[in-house]
Design goal:
Helices cover 64% and strands 0% of the residues. The chain is mainly alpha-helical and 243 residues long.
Length: 243
Protein backbone atom coordinates (compact mmCIF):
# COMPACT_ATOMS: atom_id res chain seq x y z
CA UNK A 1 0.00 0.00 0.00
CA UNK A 2 1.49 3.43 -0.87
CA UNK A 3 2.82 5.54 2.01
CA UNK A 4 0.51 8.48 1.38
CA UNK A 5 -2.52 6.19 1.43
CA UNK A 6 -1.39 4.61 4.69
CA UNK A 7 -0.91 8.06 6.25
CA UNK A 8 -4.34 9.17 5.12
CA UNK A 9 -5.85 6.02 6.49
CA UNK A 10 -4.10 6.32 9.83
CA UNK A 11 -5.11 9.97 10.06
CA UNK A 12 -8.75 8.97 9.51
CA UNK A 13 -8.49 6.25 12.16
CA UNK A 14 -6.99 8.70 14.63
CA UNK A 15 -9.90 11.07 14.03
CA UNK A 16 -12.22 8.22 15.09
CA UNK A 17 -10.12 7.60 18.18
CA UNK A 18 -8.60 4.39 16.80
CA UNK A 19 -4.85 4.00 17.25
CA UNK A 20 -2.71 1.80 15.06
CA UNK A 21 -3.52 0.09 11.83
CA UNK A 22 -6.46 -2.31 11.98
CA UNK A 23 -7.11 -5.13 9.53
CA UNK A 24 -9.82 -4.42 7.02
CA UNK A 25 -12.49 -6.66 8.60
CA UNK A 26 -11.95 -5.31 12.11
CA UNK A 27 -11.89 -1.77 10.80
CA UNK A 28 -15.30 -2.15 9.19
CA UNK A 29 -16.72 -3.67 12.36
CA UNK A 30 -15.38 -0.86 14.52
CA UNK A 31 -16.70 1.78 12.17
CA UNK A 32 -20.10 0.12 12.10
CA UNK A 33 -20.23 0.07 15.90
CA UNK A 34 -19.41 3.76 16.07
CA UNK A 35 -22.02 4.60 13.45
CA UNK A 36 -24.69 2.68 15.38
CA UNK A 37 -23.66 4.43 18.58
CA UNK A 38 -23.97 7.84 16.94
CA UNK A 39 -27.41 6.93 15.52
CA UNK A 40 -28.69 5.75 18.89
CA UNK A 41 -27.49 8.95 20.56
CA UNK A 42 -29.18 10.96 17.82
CA UNK A 43 -32.48 9.09 18.22
CA UNK A 44 -32.36 9.43 21.99
CA UNK A 45 -31.76 13.15 21.63
CA UNK A 46 -34.74 13.68 19.35
CA UNK A 47 -37.32 11.42 21.05
CA UNK A 48 -36.81 12.79 24.55
CA UNK A 49 -37.93 16.34 23.68
CA UNK A 50 -40.84 14.95 21.69
CA UNK A 51 -42.13 13.20 24.77
CA UNK A 52 -41.68 16.28 26.90
CA UNK A 53 -43.69 18.32 24.41
CA UNK A 54 -46.88 16.40 25.31
CA UNK A 55 -47.77 17.79 28.74
CA UNK A 56 -50.93 16.86 30.56
CA UNK A 57 -51.63 13.73 28.57
CA UNK A 58 -50.30 11.33 31.13
CA UNK A 59 -50.15 7.64 30.55
CA UNK A 60 -53.26 6.45 28.75
CA UNK A 61 -52.15 2.85 28.63
CA UNK A 62 -51.48 0.49 25.79
CA UNK A 63 -55.07 0.74 24.57
CA UNK A 64 -54.74 4.38 23.55
CA UNK A 65 -55.76 5.10 20.00
CA UNK A 66 -53.26 6.46 17.52
CA UNK A 67 -55.73 9.17 16.46
CA UNK A 68 -57.63 10.60 19.38
CA UNK A 69 -58.06 9.11 22.82
CA UNK A 70 -61.64 10.32 23.14
CA UNK A 71 -62.71 8.66 19.88
CA UNK A 72 -60.88 5.38 20.33
CA UNK A 73 -63.07 2.29 20.36
CA UNK A 74 -61.04 0.99 23.29
CA UNK A 75 -61.30 4.13 25.40
CA UNK A 76 -62.99 4.05 28.78
CA UNK A 77 -65.92 6.22 27.67
CA UNK A 78 -67.01 3.74 25.03
CA UNK A 79 -66.38 0.82 27.35
CA UNK A 80 -68.63 2.46 29.94
CA UNK A 81 -71.24 3.15 27.28
CA UNK A 82 -71.25 -0.48 26.13
CA UNK A 83 -71.55 -1.62 29.72
CA UNK A 84 -74.48 0.74 30.29
CA UNK A 85 -76.20 -0.58 27.18
CA UNK A 86 -75.69 -4.14 28.34
CA UNK A 87 -77.26 -3.35 31.69
CA UNK A 88 -80.03 -1.33 30.05
CA UNK A 89 -80.89 -4.02 27.54
CA UNK A 90 -84.24 -5.38 28.54
CA UNK A 91 -86.29 -8.42 27.70
CA UNK A 92 -89.79 -7.68 26.41
CA UNK A 93 -90.92 -11.09 27.72
CA UNK A 94 -93.10 -11.73 24.70
CA UNK A 95 -92.95 -14.12 21.77
CA UNK A 96 -90.32 -11.75 20.38
CA UNK A 97 -87.86 -13.77 22.46
CA UNK A 98 -89.67 -17.10 22.27
CA UNK A 99 -88.16 -19.90 20.23
CA UNK A 100 -90.43 -21.15 17.47
CA UNK A 101 -90.14 -24.66 18.82
CA UNK A 102 -91.69 -23.55 22.12
CA UNK A 103 -94.86 -22.27 20.44
CA UNK A 104 -97.88 -24.61 20.64
CA UNK A 105 -99.04 -26.22 17.43
CA UNK A 106 -101.98 -24.40 15.84
CA UNK A 107 -105.38 -26.05 15.64
CA UNK A 108 -107.29 -26.55 12.41
CA UNK A 109 -109.73 -23.81 13.43
CA UNK A 110 -106.91 -21.33 14.05
CA UNK A 111 -105.24 -22.02 10.72
CA UNK A 112 -108.50 -21.46 8.86
CA UNK A 113 -109.09 -18.23 10.79
CA UNK A 114 -105.71 -16.89 9.63
CA UNK A 115 -106.94 -17.01 6.09
CA UNK A 116 -109.98 -14.85 6.86
CA UNK A 117 -108.10 -11.68 7.79
CA UNK A 118 -104.75 -10.35 8.85
CA UNK A 119 -106.27 -9.07 12.10
CA UNK A 120 -107.29 -12.61 13.08
CA UNK A 121 -103.83 -13.88 12.24
CA UNK A 122 -102.18 -11.25 14.44
CA UNK A 123 -104.63 -11.82 17.30
CA UNK A 124 -103.54 -15.46 17.51
CA UNK A 125 -100.19 -16.24 19.23
CA UNK A 126 -99.63 -19.31 17.04
CA UNK A 127 -100.55 -17.24 14.01
CA UNK A 128 -97.98 -14.60 14.89
CA UNK A 129 -95.38 -17.29 15.41
CA UNK A 130 -96.07 -18.93 12.03
CA UNK A 131 -96.13 -15.56 10.28
CA UNK A 132 -92.87 -14.58 11.93
CA UNK A 133 -91.23 -17.74 10.63
CA UNK A 134 -92.38 -16.79 7.15
CA UNK A 135 -91.06 -13.23 7.54
CA UNK A 136 -87.69 -14.65 8.50
CA UNK A 137 -87.49 -16.46 5.17
CA UNK A 138 -88.12 -13.09 3.49
CA UNK A 139 -85.54 -11.31 5.65
CA UNK A 140 -88.15 -8.98 7.13
CA UNK A 141 -88.57 -10.48 10.59
CA UNK A 142 -87.70 -7.12 12.12
CA UNK A 143 -91.20 -5.88 11.22
CA UNK A 144 -92.80 -8.41 13.52
CA UNK A 145 -90.17 -7.89 16.21
CA UNK A 146 -90.78 -4.13 16.16
CA UNK A 147 -94.55 -4.57 16.32
CA UNK A 148 -94.23 -6.96 19.27
CA UNK A 149 -91.86 -4.60 21.07
CA UNK A 150 -94.33 -1.74 20.63
CA UNK A 151 -97.21 -3.88 21.90
CA UNK A 152 -95.31 -4.57 25.10
CA UNK A 153 -94.07 -0.99 25.35
CA UNK A 154 -97.59 0.47 25.36
CA UNK A 155 -98.29 -1.46 28.58
CA UNK A 156 -95.46 0.30 30.44
CA UNK A 157 -96.50 2.88 33.05
CA UNK A 158 -93.26 3.71 34.89
CA UNK A 159 -91.82 6.97 33.54
CA UNK A 160 -88.14 6.05 33.90
CA UNK A 161 -88.76 2.64 32.31
CA UNK A 162 -90.64 4.29 29.45
CA UNK A 163 -87.70 6.57 28.70
CA UNK A 164 -85.16 3.75 28.83
CA UNK A 165 -87.25 1.30 26.78
CA UNK A 166 -88.09 3.99 24.23
CA UNK A 167 -84.37 4.57 23.70
CA UNK A 168 -83.76 0.84 23.24
CA UNK A 169 -86.59 0.49 20.70
CA UNK A 170 -85.29 3.53 18.85
CA UNK A 171 -81.75 2.17 18.68
CA UNK A 172 -82.92 -1.31 17.68
CA UNK A 173 -85.52 -0.49 15.04
CA UNK A 174 -85.58 3.21 14.14
CA UNK A 175 -81.92 4.21 13.95
CA UNK A 176 -80.45 4.09 10.44
CA UNK A 177 -77.37 2.48 12.00
CA UNK A 178 -79.29 -0.54 13.22
CA UNK A 179 -79.20 -3.80 11.21
CA UNK A 180 -82.85 -4.27 12.24
CA UNK A 181 -84.07 -0.88 11.04
CA UNK A 182 -87.69 -0.94 9.87
CA UNK A 183 -88.93 0.93 6.82
CA UNK A 184 -90.72 4.15 7.83
CA UNK A 185 -91.52 7.26 5.85
CA UNK A 186 -90.01 10.64 6.70
CA UNK A 187 -93.21 11.97 8.30
CA UNK A 188 -93.36 9.15 10.84
CA UNK A 189 -89.65 9.47 11.57
CA UNK A 190 -90.10 13.18 12.30
CA UNK A 191 -92.96 12.37 14.67
CA UNK A 192 -90.82 9.82 16.50
CA UNK A 193 -87.91 12.24 16.79
CA UNK A 194 -90.20 14.84 18.36
CA UNK A 195 -91.73 12.26 20.67
CA UNK A 196 -88.32 11.08 21.84
CA UNK A 197 -87.74 14.47 23.49
CA UNK A 198 -90.32 13.42 26.10
CA UNK A 199 -91.16 9.75 25.50
CA UNK A 200 -94.50 8.29 26.48
CA UNK A 201 -96.02 4.85 26.01
CA UNK A 202 -97.50 6.16 22.73
CA UNK A 203 -94.20 7.38 21.24
CA UNK A 204 -94.20 4.71 18.53
CA UNK A 205 -97.94 4.47 17.80
CA UNK A 206 -97.71 5.92 14.29
CA UNK A 207 -94.70 3.77 13.43
CA UNK A 208 -96.35 0.62 14.77
CA UNK A 209 -99.46 1.26 12.68
CA UNK A 210 -97.38 1.88 9.55
CA UNK A 211 -95.46 -1.39 9.99
CA UNK A 212 -98.68 -3.26 10.71
CA UNK A 213 -100.18 -1.90 7.48
CA UNK A 214 -97.02 -2.78 5.58
CA UNK A 215 -97.16 -6.40 6.75
CA UNK A 216 -100.89 -6.58 5.98
CA UNK A 217 -100.59 -5.30 2.43
CA UNK A 218 -97.23 -6.74 1.47
CA UNK A 219 -96.28 -9.85 3.43
CA UNK A 220 -99.66 -11.30 4.46
CA UNK A 221 -100.88 -12.11 0.90
CA UNK A 222 -97.61 -13.89 0.14
CA UNK A 223 -97.89 -15.84 3.38
CA UNK A 224 -101.36 -17.01 2.41
CA UNK A 225 -100.01 -18.29 -0.91
CA UNK A 226 -96.82 -19.73 0.56
CA UNK A 227 -96.04 -23.47 0.70
CA UNK A 228 -95.69 -23.14 4.47
CA UNK A 229 -99.32 -22.07 4.96
CA UNK A 230 -100.66 -24.49 2.35
CA UNK A 231 -98.82 -27.38 3.97
CA UNK A 232 -100.33 -26.50 7.35
CA UNK A 233 -103.79 -26.45 5.80
CA UNK A 234 -103.15 -29.79 4.13
CA UNK A 235 -101.87 -31.35 7.33
CA UNK A 236 -104.83 -30.30 9.46
CA UNK A 237 -107.25 -31.36 6.72
CA UNK A 238 -105.73 -34.84 6.60
CA UNK A 239 -105.88 -35.13 10.39
CA UNK A 240 -109.55 -34.11 10.31
CA UNK A 241 -110.34 -36.83 7.78
CA UNK A 242 -108.49 -39.47 9.76
CA UNK A 243 -110.34 -38.56 12.93
Amino acid sequence: MPTDVIKAKNSYLLSLGIHGEIPMGSERMEMRKRQMSVQQESVAGTTAPAQSELPGQGNRGSNACCFCWCCCCSCSWNEDREERNRRASYDFKTEENTDFEESPKPTAEEIHLWGQSFDKLMQCPTGRSAFRQFLRTEFSEENMLFWLACEEFTKETNKSSIEEKARIIYEDYISILSPKEVSLDSRVREVINRNMLEPTSHTFDDAQLQIYTLMQRDSYPRFMNSPAYKNMLKTVSELSVES
